[in-house]
Amino acid sequence: MAEEFDPWAGVEEQTEERSNTEFDFEKLLFVLRKNILWSILIIGMGIVGGYLFLRWTPKVYEASTLLKMEIQSTRKLFGLEMPSVTGSMENVNLAGEMELIKSPMMYESVLDSLDLSISYFSEGEVQDTELYGSLPFVVSYKHLGKENSIFYDQKIHIEFLDEENFVLTFNEFSEIQTINGKFNQPFRVYGTEIILQKTKSLESLGHRKYNFVFNSKNKLFQNLRQNLSVNVENARANTLRINYQANNRSKSIDVLEAFNKNYIVKTIENKNVVYERSLQYLKNQQATIEDSLRKYETEYRSYTRIENVPEFAGLEDIVSKIRELEQQKLEIRLTKSQYDEIIKLIDADSSTIYLEAVGHLLGNQQIASMINNVLLVEQDLDRVKGSYTKETHARNQRREALLESRSKLKEVIIYSLGTINRQIDNLDQEVLKLEKAFYGSIGGDPVLKNIEKNFRIYEEMTSLIASKMIELNIAKSGTVENFQVLSQPNADIAPVFPQTIMVYGVGIGSGVFLSLLLIVLSYLLHTRIDSVKQVERISNLPILGYVPHYSKEDMNYSQLVVQKRPKASISEAFRSIRTNIDFMNVGEEQKVLSVTSTISGEGKTFVAANIAGVIAMSGAKVALLDVDLRKPKIHFAFGNENLDGLSSVLIGKSNLKDVLRSSPIATMKYVTAGPVPPNPSELIMSKGFSAVINQLKEEFDVIVLDTPPVGAVTDGMIAMRHVDLPIYVVRAEYSKTSFVENANELSKSKKIKNLALVVNDVYSRTLNYGNYYGNNYSYGYGGYNGYGYYDENDISEKWWKRFFS
What we know:
By secondary structure, the chain is an alpha/beta fold. It has 3 domains: 61-271, no CATH class; 274-487, no CATH class; 532-804, Rossmann fold, CATH 3.40.50. It is built from 27 helices and 23 strands. The strands form 5 sheets. An 8-stranded mixed sheet has the order 16-23-22-17-21-18-20-19, sandwiched between helices. A hairpin with a 2-residue loop joins β9 (187-189) and β10 (192-198). α10 (315-347) packs antiparallel against α11 (352-362) and α18 (569-584) crosses α19 (604-616). The protein is rod-shaped. It starts with 10 loop residues before the first helix and ends with a helix. Residues 1-20, 73-92, 768-796 and 800-804 have low confidence and may be disordered.
């Protein structure tokens, strides 16, 4: 004999605790659909926020320049070595140079070279825009003293009345003050004379609002400190990168150009300090030695007068003449060394800048002119290098011209050196003759010889000091800045802040992040049933079917839709449930059905009424009994009042036949709950309730009980003792998953036998499968869609409505 099928077999063993921490892809899709509009709105708000940030944030431009630190002195090129100076000059300390650039001394120089004492602004609705360069008006004033400090660092608003008159508005100790004035005419404010000059016509200004600010030195210094940055670009190459940020592009470039110019001056001044100190020391020594020379001259004259040394020798004239000739020799030799250095530079193919520096010291106009010509030819060659390749005729022609000009310069220098050498020889011969005459005159007088010896020593010291002073002056004059500006100050047209791509990226990224956060939180906090599949995953109880969401009309109370709209898809869903109930009835007759839920609002009354109706429409005699004595609702489905009913029968006030009422379906009758009693549980537990059920079984084929929610009261559990097939209703997007788990527990604990589920109010977006006879239900008969079975208005929603709903 074949074994009978038991749909509940093994339910207790198969039902296990589901972990809410398991990832649920269907749940994620549901959360995405529910929050997609919010996500789009959040991302859109991020984009709008980025636009407003770009619109209302002052733009910051950054100018940049690259400097190469190679400060050196041409004294080394002249062969003038001073060990005490060399170390200071050749040690390029990048950290020290950076501090020099950022020093208050440099700030002072830059501010002196730029007119930043007044800032001009064009007023907007949200922010002011700094004006620089082309100004609508210019403010000139004499020094603002302490008595005018109220004007510093505050906005002074200007309103143009007409082409000649204006009004200034400013705050004075929290009080608004106004001053009327005329353009190009001085007016006095607290003793300071101020003149406003209008540079543009009132019509061209477009009646815009402006203001200006007298900047204090502290504010200017602070602005430079905050917006100037100096960094080492390449330590091995001794290069520094200087950046300056400002709200105006032209201003940022001008400030850096001022830094470059003033830095050159300050650098040379600082590097020449060592020469100044050395020169001062030599001058002091020179004065001391000259005093000693005068002392010995005085001794010489006194001795010759006391000892009656004859004047025949003319010793004083001889000494004076020797000193004069030696000075001439010293100057000529220094000139000779300069000529020699020029030849060395020409032979070494050195830069013309060094030739120009040495030629300037010579004072020879012819040579200076020739060096200038070499410089022009060299500049012409440098110019064509950027446009012509190495072997082109233009470059070769200029290269030959440069070599020829250098060769001619060298010939002139060599000729001049010959003349200088002859001059030195002639001077040497004259000095030799005078020295012989001097020694012949003084004879063997030991005192005179001693005086002469000391005199000669100090005279040589004087010559040495003079020579060193000349060398130092040459070195000082020849200190050139090999201070290369590798890149001139320049700023991109696009501001460095705010950057459009970055701002929109942050806005979109923030929107995406917040949207993901919203989705994650919604996923974690979502504990409601969203689809039939989810019910399948968390419960092994049989599912009789689902009831689709019904939106064709507003239902403030339960209605008998299977009778009102028999061709609607919701009616077909109830027919599917009826069929599944028949399949559940294997091997035994099931006369009594009950419909319950966990809490109120899940649609148990609606499901009970329509299950009863759809069974009655199949020809069976059906009785619908409202057992929810606390909140009766069955009477609303039929449009009647709840006067007499089940409670009246149970207390013996009415007969069952008197409270049975007819419905729009001929084979279906219903019993309302009746007046709400004070003891509903006791009434349902009474023998009278069992008698009512037995009496109905004799007259009707099927009895459907609308029982109270089992999660709220115990009435439902008591009533289901008389039931053959209990139906447990859960509502999509309303019932929590714990309600299904509650049904599992009821079945597992044997409190309710043969328990089956119905999922109510299911949206079509969750019906991506065909297990439960959805809108395209065919059940082996080719389907009903397209053959006029469904109402014309009962059409599936658009895909985008299903997705966003």
